[in-house]
């Protein structure tokens, strides 16, 4: 009840969408990657089974994407809550993926896989953290953003800012799928 009231009080508090990682100049590139999911369509509701702990099963959705451009050495997946009531969006998950992948089966971000390397997200967490909007806060948009890089990441960045510096000038293409959940 108190959380729902807090969500309602903060309903109009949302970051400027331009603060999303999608708009970071370090990640700028042509939008030529098509990202899809069998769990939800672009702009539609993400099923609760893919929601974070305490709300759903925290099971990563199946994702698929079009072939990355020639010269791609690494794929980078960023899952971000664009509407959290904070000064900037929160990144739930960051994963460096093998460039040979054309998708991820349901649950693949919940287990160890040699083709997936998790990097620190907004609060330093590693792994899949599904949508979990503040109750009462309204609709939240979650961007599943994919970037094709012309080099492997190599070292693990300490945080999101360090990651952006590592990829600056190395993004060949990008694409995204946006799903929603009601808080």
UniProtKB/TrEMBL annotation:
It comes from the Bacteria. Pfam families: PBP (PF01161). It comes from Psychromicrobium silvestre. Belongs to the UPF0098 family. PANTHER family: PEBP (PHOSPHATIDYLETHANOLAMINE-BINDING PROTEIN) FAMILY PROTEIN (PTHR30289:SF1), UNCHARACTERIZED PROTEIN YBCL-RELATED (PTHR30289). InterPro entries: PEBP (IPR008914), PEBP-like_sf (IPR036610), YbhB_YbcL/LppC-like (IPR005247). This is Raf kinase inhibitor-like protein, YbhB/YbcL family.
């Amino acid at each position: 009840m108190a959380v729902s009231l807090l969500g309602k009080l903060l309903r109009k508090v949302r970051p400027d969408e331009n603060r999303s990682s999608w708009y970071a100049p370090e990640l700028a590139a042509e939008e030529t990657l098509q990202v899809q999911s069998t769990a939800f369509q672009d702009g539609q509701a993400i099923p609760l089974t893919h929601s974070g702990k305490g709300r759903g099963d925290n099971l990563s959705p199946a994702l698929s994407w079009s072939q990355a451009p020639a010269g791609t050495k690494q794929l980078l997946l960023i899952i971000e809550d664009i509407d959290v009531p904070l000064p900037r969006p929160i990144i739930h998950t960051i994963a460096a993926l093998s460039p040979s992948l054309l998708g991820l089966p349901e649950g693949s971000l919940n287990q160890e896989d040699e083709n997936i390397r998790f990097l620190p997200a907004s609060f330093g967490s590693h792994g899949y953290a599904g949508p979990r909007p503040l109750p009462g806060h309204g609709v939240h948009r979650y961007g599943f953003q994919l970037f094709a890089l012309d080099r492997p990441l190599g070292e693990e960045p300490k945080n999101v800012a360090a990651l952006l510096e590592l990829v600056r000038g190395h993004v060949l293409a990008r694409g995204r799928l946006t799903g929603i959940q009601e808080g």
